[in-house]
Amino acid sequence: MTLRGFIPLAVFLLLIALLWAGLQLDPRKIPSPLVGKPAPEFLLPRLDNPEQSINSKDLLGQVWLLNIWASWCVACRSEHPVLNAWTQQDDVMLIGMDYKDQRDDGLNWLKVLGNPYRFSVMDENGRAGMDWGVYGVPETFVIDKKGMIRYKHIGPLSWDDLNTKIKPLISQLKQEF
Amino acid sequence: MIHRLLLLLMLTLSFNQTHAAFNLKQFDNPEYAARYENLIYQMRCLVCQNQTIADSDADLAQDLRDEIFKMINSGKTDQQIIEFMVARYGEFVLYKPRVEKKTWLLWGGPMLLLFSGIIVLFRNAARRNKHVDMEIDQAALNKARLLLDEEDKP
What we know:
A: 177 residues, alpha/beta, Glutaredoxin, five-stranded mixed beta sheet, 7 strands, elongated, B: 154 residues, mainly alpha, Helicase, Ruva Protein, domain 3, 2 domains, 6 helices, 65% helix
């Protein structure tokens, strides 16, 4: 048998490899077009104080994270202890966005499960979340000093995600300019 | 029989109503209504992924329908509305992704496969034609003839 005879086999193996790689992908993780772009601005009331509004522009100049959560979100429940422990040991500018939720439910969630956030803003109708391309909570964005989105994590954060991706990225971004 | 038909008719009508209920949007301008219908059937719901935002009952699809409704009424063009969606949710939101740098393989891939198939086909055909007048060893041929002509002995 000549080398030519192996071509179909090679094509077949290549196809298997591609399909196998395809199976490892999570179809729920859609790459965000916002990574590398300026973070969408929002002006939203604080969850704990509706009188006080937060403008996202005020966060320019520091590295911060936006974690989108909701009291109705089941996956957020598994992420929450990780965020609690992380923010207790590290100095993290973690800001929450309570997405399409009731204020009382959101406040109660933080009271019962602990509050890892510097503060949370209330996105009651989900319009701000729409600007951030939110389609499934929890989602976490890392924003640099210039106000650019540098990373988006879809789904609950694990210790592994924090240690391998988020933490190194934050210390790298803190070094910038 | 007539009862069954009536029941069927009533069921059909009730289905139509529920479908209309969650797509119901009142436009003053019939042209706007047509554009709205067209747009919501082009966009994928990101929560359920294999439904358009017209078909999906997900909360996000509902919000996006409302947003498209508002944008059309405020005079945005279809192009602007598509930009709005792609800027937030990526090319994936469109059932028919636009042809650009990131999507050329998606659009060109089938053509590429077709052409490589045609090339392989022609090359194989050419090879087969060449083999028709291949040389045959005369001695082997004679030996084969001898074996064929030989009477089978029981």
